[in-house]
Amino acid sequence: MPFELRPYPTPTLRPEGAYLRTAWQQSVYPLAARMGVEIRLPIVSPQPHTRLAFEGLEFAKDHGVGDAYNSAVMRAFFQRSEDIGNPDVLATLAESAGLDREAFEKALRDHVYADRVTELLRHAYDEMRIEGVPFFVIGDQRLSGVQSVAALQRAIRAAGGPS
Fold first, then answer.
1. Which residue ranges form the domains of the chain, and what is each CATH number?
2. CB–CB of 82/76 below 8 Å?
3. Which segments of the chain have a pLDDT < 70?
4. What is the pTM assigned to this prediction?
């Protein structure tokens, strides 16, 4: 589901800044190492806005390859530091996920999915009140940020789930 921490026109962060470097060193890299996930702080500066990538995701979902496209975009950004705000980069990733490049490019150029993405973002901000990621809704509990297994288990039990 689309969610933007810094939607346009809010400036995005720069990876050379102290905030991102510190956050990644203290939180992201240790968590990724524990989970066996290959990830690195993307060097694209400033970081791209993701609205167009989300429009591409909606196109991909309509063509049955949403997961493949999403995975390609995430790997491109978080493993290879590709600029996922660039329509040409997104089209190459879409093609790698099995989509027709020309149809994808036309959908982005014409903003075919702009209204759908706007509605999904409105739902995330206004109805779900998401302020950070990851975000979990378990019963009537809303948990923002990385959660421990124990915290997720407590939330599931409190919601009447299995113990």
1. 18-127 (3.40.30.10), 131-163 (no CATH)
2. yes
3. 163
4. 0.90
